[in-house]
Amino acid sequence: MRYAAVAVLLLAATPVLAAEKPLFGWIENASIEPWGVQVKAKLDTGALTSSMHAEDIERFEQDGDDWVRFTVEVEDEATGDVVSREFEQPVFRNVRVRGAGGSERRPVVLMKICIGDTVYEEQFSLEDRDDMLYPLLIGRRTLQHLGPVDVTRTFEHRLRCDDDSKVMAHDAEPDDEDIDD
């Protein structure tokens, strides 16, 4: 009888827990803010840090701080047009990425993206993802702010960000194994 009471309590709490964070598909539409260009994003629980397609990555110093200049050229999913924009951002940190071909040091910047009705300021490593299907890869650092991912679903959320949208500011995490500063 005692186990039945515990089971009933757990089942009653499950809908409340599930309602706290929305469910996302493994592919979602996102917009790069404040630019507003709409791209496909792959939500990847195997990646720690999110990654954004960037070309012509150039490091430089500004007022004694490390900065990076890069170009984002993507297909705007809303119009089908290929669009391009140059960004200059302070380097938030550097990341060491290990793969079959060895390891690579990449700059990480803070960028804002919209998914659903919320704008998220998150860390993105910059990499030429031209040969990849998705220009944005959303890693676990960002996913912890979004919600659970259902790998059997795609495009669960319509983009609905506007000037009144909730903004989730970047929350500094403790050091992780991929940090290379």
| CATH architecture name | Beta Barrel
Q: How far apart are the first and last residues' alpha carbons, in Å? A: 56 Å
The CATH C-level name is Mainly Beta
Secondary structure category: mainly beta
Helix content: 10-25%
If you consult CATH, what is the topology?
A: Cathepsin D, subunit A, domain 1
Count of separate structural domains:
1
Succession of helices and strands? HEEEEEEEEEEEHEE
Mean pLDDT value: 87
Question: Can you count the beta strands?
Answer: 13
Strand content: over 45%
> Over all CA atoms, what is the radius of gyration?
19 Å
User: What is the number of helical segments per DSSP (H or I, 4+ residues)?
Assistant: 2
- As laid out across the biggest beta sheet, the strand order is 2-3-11-4-10-9
Q: Characterize the overall form.
A: globular
For the sheet with most strands, the description reads: 6 strands, mixed, barrel
Please, what is the CATH homologous superfamily?
Acid Proteases
Question: Uncertain regions: pLDDT < 50 for 5+ in a row?
Answer: none
Protein name: Retropepsin-like aspartic endopeptidase domain-containing protein
Keywords: Signal
Organism: Isoalcanivorax pacificus W11-5
Signal peptide: 1-18
